Amino acid sequence: MPAALTEGCDPFLSKRTVHLLWTQWQAGLLQRLNEEVKGTPNATESVVETVMNTARDREKILMFNYASLALNTSFFLSSLVPHAAQSVQAYPQPSTHMGAVPTFYGKTLATAIADQFGSLPQLKLAVSSAAMGMVSSGWIWLVKDDHGRLGIVPTYGASTVLVHQRRQCGPSDLVTTVQDGQTSSDAATPATTPASNESTSATTPAQELRASAPNRFDSLSRSSAAGAIGHHLYPLFCISMFEHAWLGDYGFWGKERYLTHFWDCLHWERVERLWGDDRA
């Protein structure tokens, strides 16, 4: 467990929830991972290596799931620090002294946020939009690509941004199916019959819903969709959208408050270091 979280992460997560995430959830994942890799070539690998080496092997899906969930959970908790332990000015501000804070492609993180999202409140709005749109468990990531562009990427279940084939996410108007490589767009593509060569274009209920009730955050989510940034992504922070992370402290309908309090405890100094790290 990160030393800063031994007494919880006030006001975001209680001590009970932090210990639940680390001593039960995380410990259980690692125990099951050790059982899966025992006696296999993966037994000597690090968790990161196991994620990378099993992502494309369907016969090792449990190894991947346990390793990826453990890695994501560790990254999430390492991105937090109690609000009282933060510096007075936790969020890095744009600086004319470029050497004073980490930079990437000549920009500070604060400048990149301002350039791409307009402001920190707009970034928070875009993150909340992506998170509130998730109806299943997963993760919301702020990432950078090789060219210093920022993006907000949701992944589902045990998926990760570290391996392209296992992100299980797509542009904001696509919904991935259970089978890798197929999306709901396959069903929406007009079907051509061999006999008539005529296309049928029946409108699905989901298409009607999107047409009649557009998302008011649509422009924000599309501006940072996975398709707008490069294929090589480097995570800066992630938020767990598993119910066990927020249900105990916020209740069934407390997801929005959970997201609001997340920003009170985000470890901006760590995020900024990852932004400036060429090897992130």
β-sheet strand percentage: 5-15%
Helix percent reads 40-55%
Helices and strands: which structural class?
alpha+beta
Helices, by number, come to 11
Low-confidence stretches: 168-227
- Shape annotation: globular
What does this structure look like?
- The structure is a single chain.
- The protein has 280 residues and is an alpha+beta fold.
- Among the domains are: 14-79, Helix Hairpins (Orthogonal Bundle), CATH 1.10.287; 83-88 and 99-164 and 229-279, minor pseudopilin epsh fold (3-Layer(bab) Sandwich), CATH 3.55.40.
- Helices cover 41% and strands 11% of the residues.
- The chain contains eleven helices and seven strands.
- It has helices at 15-37, 47-54, 61-78, 109-117, 120-132, 184-188, 205-212, 218-223, 243-250, 255-262, 268-276, and strands at 103-104, 107-108, 138-145, 150-156, 191-192, 199-200, 233-240.
- The chain has a three-stranded antiparallel sheet. The chain has a two-stranded antiparallel ribbon with strand order 1-2.
- A hairpin with a 4-residue loop joins strand 3 and strand 4.
- It is globular and about 50 Å long.
- The two termini are 22 Å apart.
- Residues 168-227 have low confidence and may be disordered.
- This is Manganese/iron superoxide dismutase C-terminal domain-containing protein.
- It comes from Malassezia globosa (strain ATCC MYA-4612 / CBS 7966) (Dandruff-associated fungus).
- Residues 183-206 have a biased composition (Low complexity).
- Residues 107-165, 231-273 form the Manganese/iron superoxide dismutase C-terminal domain.
- Residues 173-208 are annotated as: Disordered.
